[in-house]
Amino acid sequence: MTKHPRDGVLTAYVVGEPELAPETVWAVEAHLETCGACRQELTEITALRAPEVPALLDRVWSTVDKMAVEAAAPKSLRLVRLLRQWAPPAQRPWLVMSALVAVAAFVIDLLAKSTHSVSLVLLLAPVTPLFGISAAWSWSVDPMGELTASSPRAGLELVLRRTVAVLVVIIPLVALTGGVDGVSIALCLVPCLAFTVGALAVGTVLGVQRAATLLGAAWVAVSVVPALIQSDLPAQLSRASLPWWGVAAVLAAAIVLVRGRRFAQV
Amino acid sequence: MVRAVHSAELAPTTYGWHINATELRVRAGRRMAVDGLDLRLGQGVHGLLGPNGAGKTTLIRALATVLRPAGGELNLLGQRVGGRLDLRSLRRQIGYLPQDFGYYKQFTVREFVEYMGWLKEMNPREVPDAVQRAIDRVGLRERANSRMKQLSGGMLRRAGIAQAIVNSPDLLLLDEPTVGLDPAQRLEFRTLLRDLGQQACVLVSTHLVEDVAAACSNVVLMDEGKLVFQGTPADVAARGGQQDVGDNPIERGYTALLTQHRAGVHQ
Predict the structure, then answer these.
(1) Cβ of residue B147 closer than 8 Å to a chain A Cβ
(2) Closest residue of A to B210, CA-based?
(3) What pTM value is reported for the model?
(4) Pick from A40, A88, A153: which is nearest to B121 by CB?
């Protein structure tokens, strides 16, 4: 820390004494940044010797305050508050991305119906919700992650709320696009649910974002890419596999219930 | 450790100690940032001082139950942290302002504090009044309907303090709360701190010893994850000699205590 200015230097600084050397002004300013006592003294000297400065500051602040009050944001509606409690603002872009994947898959299916025998809607249904899910409990995505984690609501209940918010949007969308596409709606939805709950189950160990990324990448590598190359649906998306998807979803749900306490802390 | 008087002994409440840590160890990444800390604090305002890397933020995060202790024992408000403890009920009684707190930019100050009230599971009927009270106490009444992204650094800090006190916590943890506040706001904040300390245990991590001298009844000094000293600001000031570095007695005492501790560690 620098030394306190000598007697009279602060007063000279306040009144803008022309004889005060520039290096002294610089040293005074550097000192003021770290010394609360001198800042306090400066405030007192300014009030005495240069009262126009605080008066000007007061005028500026009252103008700024007036403008801010005049430009006040409208009070939030009850519905908006409710939406925030289910899907916080940080999660919404990711939820939109999930919805766009479903829509894009559907559009491609429509446009390439004559050349492709594989339904992209069906093929991508398991991983469609994962974008939204990855943002359900992620510090890197949510600026309020630290505050949320320290709150009583932090934990499984909050993760499930945010998961439900994703599913409420994605399930009807996948069911609708799958139905129009002419594929089995059950085959679209059950793997979709299994992957969602699976991401939460793995998320109790790795974190939800990492788990969603891992499961999504694995599905694309093991199922999506080979299916597109061979123009044939993988065995895991045949009707016979449906019960296994159900079993996987139930097992994953059991893991989430048992290990859900892990979501309550970093 | 250099032992002095516990100001916390002033008024033990129903909890005895609001914070009671024994041999507490907490990791920050791979580093053991808090390493064998013994600390007992009761009602009042306690200043947490220490150089960068001393473990102050890690300790506050552990006390906010964001980080899990890696060892030792931690009791908060009479409840042992760890095992099957219901963190939910404990967290309802804690207020926390992180060093770098995040917010949703599109929220207004009122919406931000209201949202935190919801996260803190406050009674929905009590939230509007509690939010208004918290906003008034930090002097943001005129800005309550301004968006967070329109606020200056000092105002953001005050909004952060408002969310921390909205639930009238028994344990209030503030990490660098005065950063960005101008001198007048800091004076008001010290008054608020003293007021809050009448009913709660308030732990304030800061680099500004003037804040500690003005508002705290007790000083906790940490270095390298351990407790170096605990006592009143006057106790700290009494440790400083004329030759020690610092502009005021507490700074000189702080430097002397750290030097003494480090010399002891190295011996």
Answers:
(1) yes
(2) A36
(3) 0.79
(4) A153
